[in-house]
Design brief:
The protein is an all-alpha fold. The chain has helices at 2-15, 23-27, 30-49, 53-76, 82-95, 98-101, 109-127, 142-155, 163-182, 187-207, 212-236, 246-259. Helix content is 73%, strand content 0%.
Length: 264
């Protein structure tokens, strides 16, 4: 296994060689590669969602390449290399698992999660004197970042008692969106109110212990699958999607729903 890692690092160095390397690879920077890193992480998640282990094997390799790519660019600037990156995560894993690598005792996974979060909070406090929400990466997907911000706020007691309060807040936010629509609200106002509504949706998901990013990803997949089935049903009935009426589409949509297996 180490030979493959060494070979991958060697290949990356050759690709980045200013003389004999690949022009595209040589031109890249941290900023230009970052979007590819995010994309590869999502492709890993997509393979897992589809339970496609062959694809997962391939996508994990693509994601590993991103780490090697960033490490190589850092090494060229005299900052750090892949071995340092690996060493940092090794140290962090050992530090955050004292029940495995030390004498601490945890009773179950819930206790471990609490201990993990406490360790992270202590580490953040040691690094900075800023507020409780510091360090939640701005580049995260919006739903994921909203969830992390809310969890941080909840740790210091700024939280709803239960989901009932969040549902009431959701109704309030929907009413405010409706008010803006009825009053001919400006795009900026509508943007703000819809944003508040989405933020409250994330809060509800959190209180119900539902991952909002994963839930929306699955909803997207369900919509995509159902829409494709609707198209097929239209075609079976001799109707083209472009010329079908909304009633035609609604009828096939309902038929597609009844043909699906599993929960709605």
């Amino acid at each position: 296994m180490s030979r493959n890692i060494d070979r991958l690092i060697e290949i990356m160095a050759l690709l980045r060689d200013p003389v004999g390397g690949c022009p595209w690879d040589v031109e890249q920077t941290f900023a230009t590669i970052a979007p590819h890193t995010i994309e590869e992480a999502y492709e890993v998640a997509d393979a897992i969602e589809k339970d496609d282990m062959a694809a997962l094997e391939d996508e994990l390799g693509d994601l590993l390449l991103q780490v090697v790519f960033h490490a190589r660019m850092a090494e060229e600037r005299g900052l750090f290399g892949f071995d340092v990156v690996a060493g940092r995560i090794v140290d962090k894993l050992v530090r955050r698992h004292p029940h495995v690598f030390g004498d601490a005792v945890v009773e179950n996974s819930a206790a471990q999660t609490a201990a993990w979060e406490a360790l992270k909070a202590r580490e953040r406090k040691e690094k900075s004197t800023h507020g409780a929400l510091e360090g939640v990466a701005a580049g995260l997907p919006a739903l994921t970042r909203a969830l992390k911000l809310q969890k941080r706020a909840a740790r210091v007691g700024f939280d709803w008692n239960d989901a009932t309060g969040v549902i009431a807040k959701l109704r309030e936010e929907i009413a405010e969106v409706e008010e803006e629509i009825q009053g001919g609200g400006s795009p900026a106002r509508l943007d703000s109110e819809v944003g508040d509504l989405l933020f409250s949706c994330v809060n509800l998901a959190r209180k119900l212990e539902v991952d909002p990013e994963g839930a929306l990803r699955r909803a997207n997949l369900k919509f995509e699958t159902r829409f494709g089935r609707m198209e097929s049903l239209l075609a079976e009935d001799g109707l083209a999607l472009e010329s079908a009426s909304l009633d035609d589409m609604d009828a096939r949509w309902e038929r597609a729903k009844t043909q699906e297996k599993g929960p709605e």
